[in-house]
Amino acid sequence: MDTMWKTVEKLRKKKLVSSSECTAFQCLFLHAGLLLLSEPEQALDLLKEIQECHQRLSARGTRQKSKRVRAAATEESEEEPEWVEVLMDVLLGLLWRPSRLLRNVVEHVFRGLISRLTPAALDLLLAVIDPKKNAGDVYDEEEQEEEEDEMDVDEEEDSDDSDDSGDSDGSNDKVGLEKGDDDDDSGDEMPENPEEMARVDSALAAVFKERAEVKRRRREDKLNMLHFKLRALGLLEAVVQRSENATLLMRIVEPLLALVNKVSGDRQAAPLHEKATALFKQRVCKARFVVQPSDLAPSMQLLESLLRMARSSPTLVACTLCTHASMFVLRAVKKSAVAMAATEKPTKRKRTEVETPVSLPEFASLQRVVELFRSALEEFLQKRSTRLHPILFIELIARHPDLGKHLVPDLERLQPIAVNKYRRKQASLMLSTLSKEKK
């Protein structure tokens, strides 16, 4: 407790790295101190983790280090996770608890640390909402148990039907002989041992009560998981609003899109679907970012993945979301290609050549983009069973006409031989739009 108060006083007097980080650590230390009154054991572990993160950040902030200290620090950093990753894990643990106060504390602290966020720390947050990484959550368990219950019911009905069919063959011959005996004994059937029947009834009641309790706990776990994911989406929204790092923003696209497709159609998860869709369409796909030349390769990989998702999209809504994401990533690809070309130092002989403007598709990466959309266009016009929709190409032509014009030869070649009238009409509309862009 004394160590915590000393640390808080130091943070008040001296800026650690920035004012936002100082405020974030002060808030965490003070909240952990309050938890000592109600949950001393958990609060002590929490204080130790926060203190360790604070010390590691302070050690990085000091510039006067000997070579041995620096070497030891680099070895430890290679073996241990970054302090922001440990702190992210702590914040997620606090966010899981059903408390509005804790939620406000986590959001306040997280906003102060967004500038320090690393891809690995962001992955911890994305793992909460990514259906691929939490495939064994309560949603999937409940679906599996419902299927098992239905299978058990079907097996019981089949066994009852087989027993009835087996007994009916032999009982029909004796029905006339036993009919009189059954009529005489039918009204006199009574339990021979009432106490034993009472014990059986109580045992059955206990079993049904236990099952009801398990279902109730499962519903509570599902509701808690739903609220946890909603809170995690709130943190992701803060990242999108406050960060302009293209590397972080690109990592959000695919898990968030997978979450939207996963909970689509689930009535109980309707709030999660609405919030995730709004965040994806209104925040992520319209976010501003600063790219680096190193962002080109991961952006190209993400664009290829999104086009594969569009090819397998089950509905028009899913294909539309993939289209919006593809246009967003394509902005990053174009900016990264231009940034990479700007970093290349021209030689003296070629300075005059570089000063002339270079069209975007001359970059190798953008040539690859044209090839990807050309392949998708060919599939849309020639394969009857494709799941692609024309919105993918309409958005490309409207938002990136400099790339869309390279599809003109393919549209002119494939439009007469398209599989049906609807797709021939869509190809004609694309050609007319591109011709207007040329004028």
Question: What report would you give on this structure?
Answer:
- The chain has helices at 2-13, 19-38, 40-61, 67-79, 83-96, 100-112, 119-129, 138-185, 194-242, 246-263, 270-284, 296-311, 316-343, 351-355, 364-382, 391-399, 401-404, 408-414, 421-438.
- The chain has 19 helices and no strands.
- The longest helix is centred in the middle third of the chain and has 49 residues, at 194-242.
Q: How far is the first residue's CA from the last residue's CA?
A: 73 Å
Secondary-structure-based class equals mainly alpha
Beta content comes to under 5%
Question: Secondary-structure element sequence?
Answer: HHHHHHHHHHHHHHHHHHH
Global geometry = flat
The main pleated sheet reads as: none
* Helical content (DSSP H or I, runs of 4+): over 70%
- Count of strand segments: 0
How many H/I helical runs?
Answer: 19
Q: What Rg do the Cα atoms give?
A: 32 Å
Q: Can you tell me the residue ranges where pLDDT is under 50 for at least 5 consecutive residues?
A: 63-69, 171-188, 347-358
Concise overview:
The chain has 439 residues and is mainly α.
Features of the shown structure:
0% strand, 439 residues, mainly alpha
